[in-house]
Structure formats: C-alpha cells, structure tokens
Amino acid sequence: MLDKLIDSIVDAALEEDLASGDLTTEACVDEGKRAVAHAVARKDLVVCGGRVFERTFHRVDPSLVVTPTLGEGARAKAGARLWSVEGSARSILMAERTALNLVQRMCGIATITRSYVDTLPVGSKTRIADTRKTTPGLRVLERYAVRTGGGHNHRDNLGSAVLIKDNHVLAAGGVREAIARAKARAPHTSKIECEVDSLEQLAVALDAGADVVLLDNMSTEQIKAAVGQTRGRALLEASGGITLARIRELAEAGVDVISSGALTHSAPAADIGLDFEP
Asked: What's the pTM value of the predicted model, to 2 decimals?
C-alpha cells in the first residue's frame, strides 16, 4: 500500500475526531507528559495494518515512535502485543481511537479470511477471493487485509475487468448477446466473465466463449454438475450464499475460485486495546 493512499484515508478519519481538538486530553494531560502504550489483542487474531497504525500516529505527531512487535499476517493469541507507540501522551491519546478503528477493521478481515483459507482441503488449488462489497473509501485497506489473510482480490474496480452480471444480461438481451458485445468491445487483454444462475445458462456462456463463469447461488450438487459440464473449458467461480461451512465441499467439487462478500462486509472488528504503561 502506498503511503499517500493510506494518508488520505487516515486524514479523513482523523478529521472526524479532531476537527474541534481534543477537549479531554488538553484539559487532563500536561503538554510535556510522555508515555509508552501497547496495542494488545484481546482475542486471537491475524495481525494486519501495522503501516496504517504507524501512519495514523505520525499524522498527528511525526515525533512519535511506533514499533511493531508481530509481523503482518502473524497469528496473535489473546494478550499478545501487536505494536507499541512512545512519545507525547497527548498525541498518543488524540490518535488512539482512529488508529484502533482502522486496524481493528483490517485485523478482523484478515482473521476471517484466514479461517476460510484454512478450511480448504490440503493441496487444494481453489482460491478464496473477496468481492467489491467493501466499505466505501476503505477498499484499499480491506483488499490488503484479505491478501494478508491468505485470500485473493477480485477485480479492483469496474474498469479493471469484464464481469457480466444478471442485470447486464437482461439489459443486453441474453447471455449470448452480452458475451458477444463484451468480446467485440473489451480490450484484447481482458478476460470475459459472465454470471449464470442455471446449468442452461452455463451451456450458453460456454458456447459463447466466456473465459470465466460465475456460478451464482447454486447448490453444491449444481456446482458439481457445472464442473462436469464445463470440463475445463472455462474457469469456474462459485459465489452467492457462501459460508465457512461450505468452503470444503465447494473446493472438493472442483471450482477454481470461491468468492465471498462476507470477507469484507460481514467481518467482525478484531478486539484490540491500547494499554498505557503505568
């Protein structure tokens, strides 16, 4: 992640908290007071967001010293120290909530992603991927968290790949027509992915030359049939209704990618606190 992208997100978040200053800290804490504080995992988690944690404190006060205790992607047990920050107590207190809000979100996504990846059968080539169901303004952080948890990213934005969804199919007049239009207009470097919700639509998409077919909200039995029907002519992505309990059976069914919006839109924030040394 580029610092300028991180800083733009951090600055907007800090503005929410500090636009009118910090009345409590300014009233209660002497200007010259120094402190050491540690970000501590309250529950088991996957570490993610160290650079974001550091940049948040530095945007408030560049003199603060932030030191990582565990690396990105490490599995942390409850009670483990993740990062430490030292310097002006006022500055630490002013940046604390924003820093924690961001890394709790990132660690939460990395943690749930790791649980999905860990559920794959040993030796499986199936990828766990996210979707565009990200928090507005935080996509770069959330996508990074998915990668940190061992997952993969889907298309980054609407201009990065062709993905024909159900409403595109309806607007174009059918699966075959939508794929034909995409092939005629998309750059030669772009693969064509098309969403289908039945084995009949799958047959049309394959015949029309789709490179990737998204199997939307299909049962495991339907997906097994789709894998047999496709016979390697296109990559198959299972999406819709994906839960942790289904990961192993879908991978064993033979799909190439399992994508889930839950990795980002439903990941619970990790429980992290910032503890000051006495």
From this structure: 0.95
